[in-house]
Amino acid sequence: MTTLPRTLYRNAKIFTAAGPAEAEAMLIEGERLAFVGSEAETLRMAGQAVPAAVVDLGGAFVLPGFIDAHTHIVMMGQTMQKVALRDAANLEEIQLRLKEAAAANPEAPRILGTSWLFSAIPGGAPTAAMIDAVVPDRPVYLDANDLHSMWVNTAALAEMGIDKDTPDTLGGRILRDPETGEATGLLEETAMHEYAWPKLASMTTDEQRDEHLAAAFEHYLSTGVTSGIDMALVEDELGAMRRALARGNGTLPLRVNAHWLVAPTGNHEENLAQVARAAELAREVNSPWLRVIGIKIIADGVIDGCTAAMKEPYADGSNAELIWQPEFLNPVVAAADAEGLQVAIHAIGDLASEVALDALEYANEVNGPRDRRHRIEHMETVTAESIQRLARLGVVASMQPVHADPAVQENWRAMLGDDRVDRAYPWTEFTDAGATLALGSDAPTAPHQPLPNMFVATTRKSALDASLPANLPKYALDLADALSHATRDAAYSCRREAELGTLATGMLADFVVLDTDPFDAGLDSLLTASVALTVVGGEVWYRG
User: How many domains does the chain divide into?
Assistant: First the structure.
């Protein structure tokens, strides 16, 4: 990290995300941009005083630091230590990787893996026996790619105390053998949250959480991310962030704005107590580097696991219940809104997004009009009527281009199996309706790197498998728009557009220098470009 109290960055092509304006130079004083403009203007503004340092960028491309509008930061760092399974094409490959991990770590008390795809499993139905065949001697916990299901072996079921008498959870399910009632090895939605996550959390130390957070910060900075909006923050993760803030004397490598997870309990008082805790934290945790700004509600599941709530059934005739029923959702949203908290609602199915909009509209009616910046997350399937309604209510559409990567779409399309796949991830419908679109990654459910994310956003092609055809290219975004949605509009989505997301005089000096100009080199260069410099608050945190 390098601190420069007064620095002139010159000889650059600067994408400001502040409209059509481009610039060539920036003068930084302390943590802010004292001036941004042409080189001649910037030198003139610098006056007779010689800057403390002059950095010639050699014509490099500069843009505002990426703001990941939807991420899970501590979990992302932890996931980097797990067995990676996203590119495992079949069960045999998954089993081979687990067997190798177990052999390489004979003293490890359990094996953790991540990002397996339903399309890699025979019939899309993972079982404990499939893992037992290669790792029978210790617990194995495998996160699904979407983090809405967990696949475990028999030893893990025993470690969690799950048997045929263990009840399902509100909004979740333990998959069972229809004849014996025994758990088969897959936990869906809140069953994973209430059985697997607490067990694993109880065996994770604060030191390990601190390491996970540090790893996430390091990887984000190396890829050009300078801020993150953390979705579903909980006490253990907040503790890690507070410790990092203390070690940094009140600063962090990344700016973090967090939404507190509110889990369904089936009890109004317990639900509202979680909102009260979030409001308390919003008052208490409110620094320029770490803020609790709202709550996160998971209204439904995911299409890959047929747990997203749809208006019409899936291809197999099934459908899913909402995780939050309106009689519980509406009071929570209204209470959070009354406290001035931003509400972020996970809604992937078209029914869930309608119910989410009902709740947000209810809060408007109960608490009166004002600038709210509430958000709906994902909206992978959504009706045209809901898009218009979202725009009318001023709700932010928070979406993740990487989820539309053709390489992870096979099972997604098969589960719907009808014309709903022809309106998947309709980003431009939101912008055409006048809604604010904020782009993120949802790491670790998807790769966190923003440049490949921008490639998917602008081409609808795969950043993982170039041989695949584009996924509904009619919804591709213009490059300038995509970059703005991942910077300027992401800042707007967390109420920080007055100081973040654009490169203009008076803004915080958070920016990224790339070794390639994608406007000149073409969209394919987003897959090969790398970060030369990441600057946060005027300080160099990463050099490529």
Answer: 3
